[in-house]
Amino acid sequence: MEHAPVSAREASILVQAVVTASGGQCVPVIRTPSHGVEWIKWALDSGAAGIIIPMVTTAQECENIIQRAIYPPRGQRSFGPFLAPYADVDPAADVAKYMKERVKEVAVIPMIESVEGVQNAEAILSVPGVTACFVGPYDLRQSMGLSGGDGEEPVYIDALERILEAGKRNNVVVGTVGATEASARRKVEMGFKFLLTGQEPNFLAAGARSTLQQCQRGMNAARSSNL
């Protein structure tokens, strides 16, 4: 939702579609466009397994997010998960089951993607309730005066390692982008535990391109055999 014009209603439909189509094997996570309570509420009430929150720069911002995402007594999340049962493959699922079982597994994943966020990584990842952390490389590099979404500049590698170390000390897994074989290997070797490997438009385009190429080869083979 952060970088795409997806409404709260559309996000709810997508969450249910992912769960149903995968038979419950895929867990949908929503990346909200802001820290706003309305976005966090809509995302979690849809039945999503968790939320990824962009541009978290301080521990207080992270605490505010936790308050909005978790029910009392730890947080202040408002009650209303009436769509959540529809994101469950169990035909007997209801709100009571969500509150008893699934709500305990909701993931809250702050994004660290700025110089300030790196400086406060230890404090951010020590906030109780943080499940994991995602490093946004493009915005992080921009905030450092660097271009592109990856690189080996010492200052950038130092920032990544600082976040990874904070994650280890606080038992918080850290992920980032790894969209190529070389990048994925490098990031895992560094200690990242999960990767964003691409986006839906890229996957759709790659699939369409592959199908078109296969069909063209078949057509060309048929034409050659008719000569």
TrEMBL record:
GO terms for molecular function: aldehyde-lyase activity; metal ion binding. Keywords: Lyase, Metal-binding. The keyword Lyase applies. Residues 1-198 form the HpcH/HpaI aldolase/citrate lyase domain. InterPro entries: Aldolase/citrate-lyase_domain, HpcH-HpaI_aldolase, Pyrv/PenolPyrv_kinase-like_dom, Pyrv_kinase-like_dom_sf. Signal peptide: none annotated. GO terms for cellular component: cytoplasm. Transmembrane segments: none annotated. Pfam families: HpcH_HpaI (PF03328). Belongs to the HpcH/HpaI aldolase family. This is HpcH/HpaI aldolase/citrate lyase domain-containing protein. It comes from Fonsecaea erecta.
